[in-house]
Automatic annotation (TrEMBL):
Protein name: tryptophan--tRNA ligase
Cellular component terms per the entry's GO annotation: mitochondrial matrix
SUPFAM superfamilies, per the entry: Nucleotidylyl transferase
Source species taxonomy: Eukaryota, Metazoa, Chordata, Craniata, Vertebrata
Gene: Wars2
GO biological process, one term: mitochondrial tryptophanyl-tRNA aminoacylation
Keywords recorded for this protein, A-Z: Aminoacyl-tRNA synthetase, ATP-binding, Ligase, Nucleotide-binding, Protein biosynthesis
Length: 135
């Protein structure tokens, strides 16, 4: 949600890809792609954002903490980031999502959005369940 220098962003993408491959992810057995090249993520985020009310987003603790760290000048991107996360999950009709405790509220938002969408337009998105990681 913070602007990045293009060269730094490109290097971060390469570094992240290298880390994923170093962890043993086999690109012959899974899909490995750059999410920013899939326009449907942003398109679905826009649609879902039109179904999500601002007060719901303002109650998220991550928004409150980040906004405080930015001298109470949080950006629209920061506010709507959880809707983009919901789009990332729902686009692939995910049924289960591995999350840490700090992301449970964002997954709950994705669940709420899926339920709202399904109620309005008919059953389309599965309501994803959390798989909590154990440390």
């Amino acid at each position: 949600t913070m602007p990045k220098e293009p060269a730094v962003l490109r290097q971060n993408i390469l570094d992240t890809t290298a880390a994923i491959l170093a962890c043993g992810i086999d690109p012959k057995r899974c899909f490995l792609f750059r999410q920013s090249l899939v326009p449907e993520h942003a398109e679905l985020a826009w649609i879902l954002g039109c179904l999500t009310n601002v007060p719901r987003l303002l109650r998220l603790p991550q928004w409150k903490m980040k906004r405080a760290s930015q001298n109470n000048e949080g950006t629209v991107g920061l506010l709507t980031y959880p809707v983009l996360q919901a789009a990332d999950i729902l686009l692939y009709k995910s049924t289960h999502v591995p999350v840490g405790e700090d992301q449970v509220l964002h997954l709950e938002l994705a669940q709420d959005i899926a339920q709202h969408f399904n109620k309005k337009y008919g059953e389309f998105f599965p309501v994803p369940k959390a798989i909590l990681s154990e440390l």
